[in-house]
Amino acid sequence: MEPKNTIFLLLLLSTTILQSSSANPNRSERDRFIESSCQTTRYPSLCVHTLSAYATMIRHNNDQDLAQTALTISLARARSVAIFVAKLTKESPSFKRREYLAIQDCIEVLGNSVDRLGQSVKELGRAGHAVASEDFMWKMSNVQTWVSAALTDETTCLDGFSGRVMEGKVKRLIRFKVVHVAQVTSNALALVNHFAEKRSVKIP
Predict the structure, then answer these.
(1) What is the C-alpha to C-alpha distance for residues 198 and 204, in angstroms, rounded to an integer?
(2) Which pLDDT tens digit goes with each residue over 30-65?
(3) How far apart are CA 169 and CA 184, in angstroms?
(4) pLDDT score, position 185
(5) Contact in structure between 148 and 192 (CB atoms under 8 Å)
(6) Which Pfam families match (predicted)?
(7) Quick check: 199 pLDDT over 50?
(8) 51, 97, 173, 177: which one has the fewest Cβ atoms less than 10 Å from its Cβ?
């Protein structure tokens, strides 16, 4: 999925949610909903900070909007980090062999993460339209599996930089960005799980 497609997806998501909402709650109600929902995540402060910037995309008390927005943000940031890491090999060609190999491995697993998050965003949208419980749970299981795998990919990126021999500016730069996107993805997974649990209770 190209970067411009991510921007289009964010805009489309915003338009769809705003059009389908019968009434917009005031800002404080929406903020309270985001804050209370983010308490189910591992990094609640980051969750609130991340989602508050896209609050207009989230209807009050709509857990699917929350999960969909969180996943879309995770996808956009994972892609941004993947592009950043890929540029490192072009802008700084004088890496040590181990650093170069670690970066190449990181590029590969981050690419996998982006693909899986892209699949998850689409599947979550389809799950929201599911009528039968079995169909909903099947689609949500796919989303949960893919997001979990994407999170594993992101953390695996850092494995190649373990050990003192890899200490340096490159490791610090990559670690800072990858840790951030992994935390965002972790929060998105928690919100996906929360939505799946609440919605499954409602569907016969």
Answers:
(1) 12
(2) 889 999 999 999 999 999 999 999 988 898 889 999
(3) 23
(4) 98
(5) no
(6) PMEI
(7) yes
(8) 97
Q: Which two tokens stand for residue 182?
A: 């992994």
Give the span between the Cα atoms of 169 and 161, in whole angstroms: 11
Kindly report the backbone phi and psi dihedral angles of residue 160, in degrees, each rounded to the nearest multiple of 5, phi listed first: -70, -10
Give the tokens for residue 187.
Answer: 């929060």
For the stretch 123-133, pLDDT in tens is 999 998 887 88
- DSSP class of residue 42 equals S
DSSP string, 86-138: HHHHHH-----HHHHHHHHHHHHHHHHHHHHHHHHHHHHHHHTT--SHHHHHH
What does the DSSP 8-state code read for residue 23? S
Question: Which residue has tokens 């993947």?
Answer: 82
